Amino acid sequence: MGEELVDSSPLSLRELFTKLCDYFVSIGLSYEDFWDGDPLKAHALYRAEKIKQQRENNSYWLLNLYTYEALARVSPLFNGFSKQTRAHPYLEEPLKPESKKKEVHNMKARFLKLVEAHNMQKRTDE
After folding, report:
1. Which of 30-65 are b and which e, b meaning 16 or more Cβ less than 10 Å from the residue's Cβ?
2. d(CA 49, CA 51)
3. pLDDT for 89-124, tens place per residue?
4. Cα radius of gyration rounded to whole Å, the chain
5. Would the pTM count as exceeding 0.70?
6. What is the per-residue DSSP string for 11-55?
């Protein structure tokens, strides 16, 4: 109920409510409840859908954080100029929500340090 309802041409009320009906039916509201039911039910379902989407986005973000962490830990193996020939050990336990920001900051710092070392090596080779 966002971008898909925004259009350059104005919609008639019939078209607008048909699009809204399609959206609400897709998230679980029955056709009868949309047209004849309590509007508060539709509003609650809309809010619940937004919460569900936010939870899914957070889950995908965390999955990508773990992927990034795994790649950052094995990246020395793929750097031909690195003196380090072993990967950093993987996390012992799952990240806790409050430690996510700190862990991301640490990963960024390690990555920047790796890039800086690579650039220094490149400069000395030239």
Report:
1. eeebbeeeeeeebeebbeebeeeeeeeeeeeeeeee
2. 5
3. 777 777 776 666 677 777 788 888 888 887 887 777
4. 25
5. no
6. PPHHHHHHHHHHHHHHTT--HHHHHHS-HHHHHHHHHHHHHHHHH
Instruction: Tell me the residue length of the chain.
Output: 126
**Beta carbons within 10 angstroms of residue 24's beta carbon:** 20
CA distances from 24 to 20, 40, 52, 63 (A): 6, 13, 14, 29
Q: Where are the domains of the chain?
A: 38-125
Q: Which two three-digit tokens encode residue 3?
A: 């971008």
Helix (H, G, I), strand (E, B) or coil at 81: coil
Distance from C-alpha of 123 to C-alpha of 5, rounded to nearest angstrom: 53
Read off the tokens for 20: 């809204």
